[in-house]
Design a protein that fits this description.
Blueprint (H helix, E strand, L loop, with lengths): L12 H8 L4 E5 L6 H15 L4 E6 L2 H18 L4 E4 L4 E4 L5 E6 L13 E4 L7 H10 L9 E6 L6 H8 L5 E5 L6 H6 L3 H8 L2 H7 L18 H4 L11 E6 L5 E9 L2 E10 L4 H11 L7 E4 L14 H12 L5 E3 L7 H12 L8 E3 L4 H9 L19 H14 L15
Helix pairs in contact: 2-3, 12-14
InterPro entries: P-loop_NTPase
Organism: Paludibaculum fermentans
Protein name: Terminase
């Protein structure tokens, strides 16, 4: 029995070309706001209905991304359109009641676990942040002899001239096709927020803007994480203003225990000082901070990553140590600005780069010349090759101060969330 369903989805031109592609392996590459999530979800649903009773797989680079973004988007499309399904949380598997088709959800960071059942189709979210071996394993599973339409597909934002670029764009083999979305194509988004892309020039640095907003493939600057840093622009003498709050951001690491002291002066974050203590505790950091800054007449705000609220082996948290210290110290109580969950690394890094120099040429981050270790961080910290993670093993002295700056900026001036595309009607 053939089942026909209508989905509320009006595809953009690039989305339609992607859905219409008959390639065995197809990709959708586009900037932010180009409708990649909608394309992924609707293609998965279409293939699940075209292959009744067969199994397909949806993957994402990590389990948190799979759970919080990819899976959530798919469930939303199914529920909004009244498509009946059962979800087995223990097996992380969905069954469509109309067809008996199964959708398996898997993270791709442990690609050796992708061996197993034959698939009729598979789809991958944010492919550029997944290892090539994961894609190769999935290709090998696309072999269900009862499938009506065998297909492997993926969506992604460009991330330099990586393996995805080489496989889908530079040297595609037979059976491969890539649709590249154009910036400003999403009429639904622009109708809601006409200046959406222009506003992002203030939130992104030039290279990140070209990649994320224009959808261009750009070559990373020697793999540097903080490629927007320029000593000629971002370094200068800074003075403490007693009429402004003191901002103290920590990275909790025993060797070295690292933190930066800053103030928001006009439109710029000014890093006044760095505190780097070898083989030190959180209490040691507090003692050194109050030695250098015994008073903060306009208030003190403390920043850190979410781990500050996690229990240590001693049965307390770094946040509790900080609170106890300043209660004993006296004076005005500090304000703690610590998130419940850390932001994605690339979003935090992108914000730091945007403050160093935004796509519209503005500088929102200045470092005092005394902060020698922070400047070395900005000049030496690199990406772990082939991943979206920072290489923390290259030099154990590096990454801590730049991380602290990122924690502060994320809590103090994180970018506004974008607006997704609207659902409209698509027939098949």
């Amino acid at each position: 029995m053939k089942i026909r369903r209508e989905i509320q989805y009006e595809p953009l031109p690039s989305q339609l070309r992607f859905h219409d592609s008959a390639a065995r392996f197809k990709g959708f590459s586009g900037p932010i706001g180009s409708g990649k999530s909608q394309a992924l979800c609707n293609e998965a649903i279409k293939l699940a209905y075209l292959n009744p009773g067969r199994a397909g797989l949806i993957g994402a680079p990590t389990y948190p991304m799979l759970r919080d973004a990819t899976q959530t988007s798919l469930f939303e499309v199914l529920r909004d359109n009244g498509l009946p399904f059962d979800f087995n949380k223990a097996e992380n598997q969905l069954t469509l009641k109309d067809t008996g088709s199964k959708i398996i959800f898997r993270p791709l960071d442990d690609f050796e676990r992708l061996r197993g059942t034959n698939l009729a189709w598979f789809g991958v979210d944010e492919l550029t942040y997944s290892p090539e071996q994961a894609w190769i394993r999935l290709e090998g599973r696309l072999r269900d002899p009862l499938a009506r339409r065998l297909c492997g597909f993926a969506v992604w934002t460009p991330k330099g001239f990586d393996w995805v670029y080489e496989r889908f764009i530079q040297n595609p083999v037979d059976g491969y096709e890539c649709v590249q979305a154009e910036p400003n194509e999403n009429r639904h988004l622009l109708k809601q927020v006409p200046d959406f892309y222009d506003r992002l020039k203030r939130s992104y640095d030039e290279a990140f803007f070209a990649q994320e907003v224009l959808g261009q493939y750009v070559s990373p600057k020697d793999g540097l994480v903080y490629h927007a840093f320029d000593r000629k622009v971002n370094v200068g003498a800074a003075e403490w203003d007693p009429e402004l709050p003191v901002l103290w951001a920590l990275d909790f690491n025993v060797n070295p225990m690292s933190s930066i002291v800053a103030q928001q002066q006009a439109e710029r974050l000014v890093v006044l000082d760095e505190i780097v203590l070898p083989r030190a505790s959180t209490r040691d950091a507090c003692l050194e901070f109050v030695r250098r800054y015994p008073e903060w007449p306009a208030g003190l705000e403390i920043f850190a990553d979410a781990c500050a609220s996690h229990l240590q082996t001693a049965g307390t948290t770094d946040r509790e140590i900080l609170q106890g210290f300043f209660e004993d110290y006296g004076g005005s109580a500090p304000v703690f600005r610590i998130p419940k969950r850390n932001p994605p690394v690339r979003d935090r890094v992108g914000l730091v780069n945007a403050k160093l120099r935004s796509a519209n040429g503005e500088t929102g981050l200045v470092v005092d010349a005394r902060c020698k270790e922070l400047m070395l961080d900005f000049e030496r910290v690199r990406w772990l090759e082939g991943t979206g993670e920072i290489d923390k093993a290259r030099d154990l002295k590096r990454t801590h101060l730049s991380d602290a700056v990122g924690y502060l900026l994320w809590q103090d001036s994180q970018p506004e969330h974008g607006v997704g595309e609207r659902n409209r009607r698509l027939f098949w």
